[in-house]
Amino acid sequence: xxRAAVDTKIRSLIEPFNKKxxxxxxxxxxxxxxxFDSLTVMDFVAEIEDEFDIIISMNQQAxxxxxxxxxxxxxxLQAD
Length: 80
Prior knowledge:
By secondary structure, the chain is an all-alpha fold. The chain has helices spanning 3-14, 38-52, 58-63, 67-79. It is globular, with a radius of gyration of 11 Å.
């Protein structure tokens, strides 16, 4: 799956979690812009892992701060 397809799918998965209706950009942050708490992050990551059949390690999660970084990480994990 190419990056554009991953981006489109993640955008659909993030909708229920985007309670404030923030416009999702490459540099949108999960903590500051979307105000995700740790439980929301865990639920969102579980959705992504299920949808793409991947595992995002805790170390990887800690490094992902923006939407663009998430799309890149999922695209890379899909390719491995």
